[in-house]
Amino acid sequence: MFKQFLVDHFPSLGKFKRWGVAWKHDNSAARATYSQHGEDKFILEYLSGFDLKDSVYVDVGANHPSDISNSYLLYRNGLKGIVVEPNKELIRLFQRFRKNDIALAIGCSNSSAVLPFHVSKTPVLSSFAGERDVNTYKTEYLPVMRLDDALSNFSFRYINLLSIDVEGLNYEVLEGAATTVKRSLLVCLEYDEAEERDRFAAFLGEKFTVLVEFGCNLLFVNEELKNAYRK
Fold first, then answer.
1. Stretch 37-52: mean pLDDT
2. 126 near 118, Cβ under 8 Å?
3. Which residues contact 13 (CB under 8 A, 6 or more apart)?
4. Domains in the chain, please, with CATH?
5. pLDDT in tens, 182-228
6. Rg, C-alpha atoms of the chain
7. What's CA 50's distance to the chain center, in Å?
8. Which of 1, 21, 179, 225 is most solvent-facing, going by the fewest CB within 10 Å?
9. Are 67 and 18 in contact (CB under 8 A)?
10. First to last CA, the chain
11. CA–CA dist 57, 80 (Å, integer)
12. 2-6, 26-30, 72-76, 198-202: which range is least confident on average?
């Protein structure tokens, strides 16, 4: 109860806890998993069967650099990539604790615009989706763009993991990432309802199959790239 009181009335104090968690993880031996349901452990083991040279991960809605992260275990095991996170406080943590990654302080959707970003007192729930009740702490107007455009000037052979978790706009991010998806071996998507699950599968098409499901997260594999980059 006291913890919730602090979150509700002194949300700015949370940044010290988030910094402390990132520091602790950065200065400790790597754990078996950092993600919500252990999906990162599965992903790392799966990717061990592929030639990862000149590949990157792309984490959209990356949130905290290590806490409930789908990409931090990959980072700790020598991989690197591009993280997309519109929350300014969290992007500073990436710049401090994941210096080998490229951190983009933007939002993603299916078109370019400036939209209100509702920063939650619990940052993982922050969203550009205005209809979601995210216990808003403050609202900032930030740029959003298509992921295809955001990645257009980066050089890599392929994307080993594309993780998308943007609280209510996952499908819109997919719509703006058609080219990116084709270059992705694994695609991890969070869904809220069964209908959204079906929409993801329909958008990805026949080249993608569901590899495994972790809680509300679906992990798809690109069958075409699976054959191309297997060791």
1. 97
2. yes
3. 6
4. 2-108+145-229 (3.40.50.150)
5. 999 999 998 878 888 899 999 999 999 999 999 889 999 999 999 99
6. 17
7. 21
8. 1
9. yes
10. 52
11. 7
12. 2-6
